[in-house]
Amino acid sequence: MNMQAGDINERLDGAYGLVESGHLVEALSVFEQLCREDAGNAEAWMMRGSVNFELGNTDDAFTQLTRAAELDSSLPESFYYLARIHQQRGNQEQALSCIEKTLTLDPEYGEAMLLSGAIHGALGQLESAEQCYRKAADLLPGSTEAWIMLGRLNAQVNEPARSAEAYRTVLSLQPDSEEACYGLGFASYMQGQHEDAVKHFSRALDLNPGYAEAANSLGTAHQALGKYTEALEAFQRALDINPESAEALFGKARALIELSRPQEAVPLLQQALLVKPDYLQAYTSLAAVLMAFDEPDKAMQCCHKALELQPDNVDVIALIARVEAQAGKLEQAYQRLKPHISADLERIDVNLTITYGTICRSMNRPEEAIDALEALRANGHLLSADSRRNVFFCLGSLHDKMRDFDKAFDNYKSGNELRATDWNPLVNCSQVDAIIEVFSKTFLDTAPRVGIRSDKPVFVLGMPRSGTTLVEQVLASHPAVFGAGELHDLYNLVAGLPASHGMGLGYPQCMPRLDENVLGGLARTYLARLGELAPDAARVTDKMPGNFSFLGLIELLFPDARVVHCVRDPLDTCLSCYFQDFAMSQPYSYDLANLGAFYRDYERLMEHWKTVLTIPMLDVSYEEMISDQEAVSRRLIEFCGLEWDDDCLQFHTTERFVATSSYDQVRQPIYSSSVRRWEKYEAYIGPLREALR
């Protein structure tokens, strides 16, 4: 009998050795045989069950571990593995009962203490979970797992400083832990330490180049710093790892929007919604882009889908209010937002408050929004770079409305300084030189013209903030005119020229290579778009201000079109640009000296066009429109080849969606407060004056 027991113990020891060396299948065979030969051996049943568990045979494991516990209730490992099986199956209460038995039998069982923390966490008993993890860390001094769990738990309960401490402990034990680097990056991000977050996420990616979540988080951290090019690269890296990541698709789309490439963002947002149909932020971002593309109905559809997901989401409510405001329904938008406004920092929503501030300014109630926005500014360290910038620009507009010009300029300046841009006036100057050189009088006299003739297009252009929206609104009030807003179509056609027809040459150098067929195709594409927008309109306005760069091409494509060139006092024009956050579509506008340099080049180019073009062009002075609205409006309508209509004098009553920042101005009768506005800020515009000389 003793020999038999000794033999069994020897075979048990041998099987343990097989387990330790990783030969689980061979070990299992031994334990199975021992259970057949000695059916009352609890240790053999316990080991048989634990090995089956490790091999993924949980049903067999559960039966065998239960048998072991029945034979001998003093074996902590039986209850430990039973707890793991219950945890896997989602039976957290049973798992807790088993792990408590384990720790009663062996209070120093480190792995069991670790599991106890996980079970308490799954049950929402977070304080008990943290206590277990800390005990496990003491019991397993060389292990990083307890500290990683502590890091995760503290991040979950919004204790980023304690989470960071836990992850730093992991890195002191294991410097190349990619998970700890990622966790430390996340904790840094939660604390607003975005530079540190970039460093830690980058380190996690260095350790594991296939770490998609780290690449995505790196993009988010770059975005918080306002570094959108770097963010775009990081999100693309995440998509290279996992093309179906809805979060990376969304992040890339947001970066493209900030880089003034919204047309590229639309398919990404749509793809993100295919991958993740309940992605609320993707709906709201898509709605915002569709608003900019003058598609308010589609934008509102996205908003309503988002509301179905979260009926009380304040970001969605704010977006709906924006659509309403830009459609001229200011009171409706105001009443929608008013119940949600508070100066209590704990209750302030950034997007909603900024939207409310913008609407209050439009309704001449700026004082109602100041307190909430000032509270946001005072706690700007808690906000992303985007949110801080939006707060500054909104406060600037509110203080301007209240005639506190010192505070207004201080906020505008702070907002502009948050926009990092590498716009170079020398590069812009050389680009204008190239346009002037290519579109010479000789070239334009000999260049092919298209055979298609159409007087439908009316290009309203000039510097941003020069009155283009006002002019379009006057024209769109005529029954024969459709106001299409700022169309990106011409820009997109030009952007595609080098690759498709220019043999690799950029614009404008590719122009001499284009023949009549190519030009005809471009004209047909653009005119088809106008036909889709307004098939019955005699005239369609395209008020993209920057089309002044393409006037030479416009002459070749649309010789029967008309060009309305809006002009305004240079100081007022540039200062108004400085007071407007264009979201990188006008990168020169964030610096007064750069603004002056850009204006000089614009002026130089327009002087060139007037000497070489034959296309009909009318200069419309903003100041003259203000001082003699009827005379200028009549001249404008006559220039477009239309009969006069009195509705053009009541442009502010015309119901149409206005996608630009001037939407509130065209809802009012003509006013003169924006004329010589620069005088109120004369003390601050020295660099602009100097650059304009």
Summarize the structure.
This protein is mainly alpha-helical. The radius of gyration is 34 Å and the shape is elongated. The protein has 35 helices and five strands.
Salient structural properties:
single chain, mainly alpha, five-stranded parallel sheet
Helix-strand layout with pairing:
Elements: H1 2-20, H2 24-37, H3 42-54, H4 58-71, H5 76-88, H6 92-105, H7 110-122, H8 126-139, H9 145-156, H10 160-173, H11 178-190, H12 194-207, H13 212-224, H14 228-241, H15 246-258, H16 262-275, H17 280-292, H18 296-309, H19 314-326, H20 330-337, H21 350-362, H22 367-378, H23 385-401, H24 405-417, H25 425-438, H26 441-446, E1 457-462, H27 468-476, E2 481-483, H28 489-500, H29 516-533, E3 539-542, H30 551-557, E4 562-567, H31 570-578, H32 592-612, E5 617-621, H33 622-627, H34 629-639, H35 686-692
Parallel strand pairs: 1-3, 1-4, 2-3, 4-5
How is this structure best described in words?
- The chain is mainly alpha-helical.
- It is built from 35 helices and 5 strands.
- Helix 32 runs parallel beside helix 35.
- The chain is elongated.
- About 2% of the residues have low confidence.
Q: What is the percent of helical residues?
A: 55-70%
- H/I helix tally: 35
Strand order of the largest sheet: 2-3-1-4-5
| Low-pLDDT regions | 655-668
Oligomer: single chain
User: What does the main sheet amount to?
Assistant: 5 strands, parallel
Shape, per Cα inertia axes: elongated
The mean pLDDT is: 90
The amount of beta strand, in percent, is: under 5%
Our measurement of the CA-to-CA distance between the termini, rounded to an integer number of angstroms, reads: 110 Å
Report the count of strand segments. Answer: 5
- Indicate the radius of gyration in whole angstroms: 34 Å
Name the structural class.
Answer: mainly alpha
